[in-house]
Design brief:
The protein is α/β, with parallel strands linked by helices and 306 residues long. 27% of the residues lie in helices and 25% in strands. It binds zinc ion (2 copies).
Length: 306
């Protein structure tokens, strides 16, 4: 199953010539999960060629304009493109009222159902065939959720020689064992998947921090993530401003990723004051070497682990 992360918007607060407002699209197989929905997100989706008709869930971190004002436009564009599939929206309290207010005042006729789920507590917010999304309370200036996307574990590596040795004929029975099912042989013996395969392999994990100061519990929430997408609005010299405004600096984001034993860190929500994000990258790398700064339309493929 392919897993791709497309950074549609990487600016914080206001857009710049190079950066659109926050939106990170996780593309798993034929499904899309959109984390935050900054203005102009549908134009970024056109540029990224990701389509408007796929199964999609939107996860809003908090109700600040830079993270949600793209949603009305996205819904309108989808309706004009005759989307028929239901769209699900998750976010903190207030999301339902926001959408009701917009749809009543603008009266755009939607061609599809929008199902809103307000998240009132940390924990699992949805569980699908193959993955689940969990939320944790971040530490911003308004109620803000961080999200974790986690795939279900995969069956362990299959060893054909072990299956042959036990007398399992190649074909359908191999396939069943590979998918975690026990099989019965003609001689009456039952073969269990664990007899012919290694340990179950963990699924891929992606963390989206939302706007936040470094928060307690992040290391556990993001533990061993394949990818941590963390905001780094201001550079280290502005750590006091970051604290005041409820944001993080590159060193702080790096330390969070390090404590979580994450594999990779991507900084986003970059303040418009940085025309060149080199300084942010340098500061993060000192703490967490496998860090990069997101650019608009950057794509990361997350391969299946062994
Ligand atoms: Zn923001
Ligand atoms: Zn904010």
């Amino acid at each position: 199953m392919s897993l791709r992360v497309v950074f549609l918007g990487t600016s914080g607060a206001i857009p710049t010539l190079k950066r659109s407002l926050p939106a990170v699209l996780v593309h798993r197989g034929n499904e899309q999960l959109l984390f935050d929905c900054g203005e102009g997100v549908q134009r970024q989706m056109i540029r990224a060629k990701v389509g408007f008709h796929k199964k999609m869930k939107v996860f809003l971190s908090h109700l600040h304009g830079d993270h949600v004002l793209g949603l009305p436009g996205l819904l309108q564009t989808m309706a004009l493109m005759d989307r028929t599939r239901k769209l699900e929206v998750y976010g903190p309290e207030g999301v339902a009222a926001f959408l009701t207010c917009v749809s009543e005042t603008l009266r755009f006729g939607l061609t599809f159902q929008v199902e809103v789920h307000e998240v009132h507590a940390a924990g699992e917010v949805c569980s699908e065939n193959g993955y689940a999304v969990e939320a944790a309370w971040a530490n911003h200036v308004t109620p803000t959720l961080a999200y974790s996307f986690l795939e279900n574990p995969r069956p362990g590596k299959f060893y054909p020689e072990k299956a042959t040795l036990l007398g399992v004929p190649k074909g359908l029975l191999w396939s069943k064992l590979q998918h975690g099912e026990s099989v019965d042989l003609v001689n009456g013996r039952m073969v269990k998947p664990e007899e012919v395969s290694g340990q179950a392999r963990r699924g891929r994990k992606i963390i989206y921090s939302g706007d936040t100061r470094p928060f307690k519990g992040f290391a556990k929430f993001a533990a061993r993530a394949d990818l941590v997408v963390h905001e780094a609005t201001f550079d280290d010299a502005l750590v006091e401003k970051a604290e005041l405004d409820g944001h993080s600096t590159p060193s702080q984001a790096g330390l969070q990723a390090k404590r979580a034993k994450a594999k990779m860190l991507v900084l986003t929500h970059v303040s418009a004051r940085y025309a060149d994000a080199g300084l942010l990258l340098e500061q993060a790398k000192k703490v967490f070497p496998n860090a990069i700064v997101a650019e608009d339309l950057m794509v990361l493929e997350l391969p299946l682990g062994e």
